[in-house]
Amino acid sequence: EDEVNIIRSVLDLREKLVVDIMTPMEDVFTLSIHCILDEKLVHKILSNGYSRIPIKESDTCFNYIGMLLVKNLISYDSDDKLPVSHFPISPLPETYVDTSCHMAIVSNNPGSYGGALGVITLEDVIEGLIGEEIVDE
Ligand code: ADP
Q1: The sheet that has 52-56: what strands, in order across it?
Q2: Of 3, 117, 135, 137, which alpha carbon lies 20 to 30 A from 49's?
Q3: Is the Cα torsion angle 97, 102, 103, 104 positive or negative in sign?
Q4: Whole-model pTM?
Q5: What residues are paired with 128 via a beta bridge?
């Protein structure tokens, strides 16, 4: 019964848009690249419990330049009071409200050479999940 419900929900994802399942920005924990990681902020980061934090270019803008992986703070001593910019900032891919969960074109990063590299569908994601190729009926 549980398995049937899970598979049904996964197949229903095809009908959904990214906007239907996203976490809205007002609920997202973000930081600016200039924030100082003092004891108070590190405590806040750890108590939020997220593994990835979207990073803004400044306190006042909404331009996201990448993400901070919280695991990079494991050996950090908050007495050092370093800014977020001291740590590696990982790329944060961008997608669009009307992207369907069914199929997307995979392109090179904006500005780099080459057009579409391939397509990815929900089936590819599920194959990635179960580690086997699905043979369609
Ligand atoms: P984590 O590994 O941090 O638990 P997941 O990737 O498993 O995060 O996502 C779990 C849920 O938390 C998802 O709904 C996702 O949208 C949300 N989420 C992830 N990172 C953040 C964040 N920095 N602020 C708010 N919500 C987040």
Answers
A1: 31-32, 52-56, 64-69
A2: 3
A3: positive
A4: 0.81
A5: none
Distance between CA atoms of residues 131 and 126, nearest Å: 8
CB 117 within 8 A of CB 108: yes
Output the CA 136–ligand 1 centroid distance in Å: 32
Tokens matching residue 66 = 């990448």
Cα 113 to ligand 1 centroid, rounded to whole Å: 32
For ligand 1, atom 26: residue with the closest CA: 28
Closest alpha carbon to 35 in 86, 73, 70, 71 = 86
Query: What pLDDT, in 10s, does the model give residues 91-101?
Result: 998 888 877 77
Please check whether residue 38 is in contact with residue 81, taking contact to mean a CB–CB distance below 8 angstroms. Answer: yes
The secondary structure of residue 83, as a DSSP letter, is: B
d(CA 8, CA 127) in angstroms, rounded, equals 16
ipTM, two decimals: 0.95
Q: Which residue among 35, 50, 51 has the greatest number of ligand 1 atoms within 8 angstroms of its CB, and so is best to mutate?
A: 50
Q: What kind and span of H or E run contains 58?
A: none
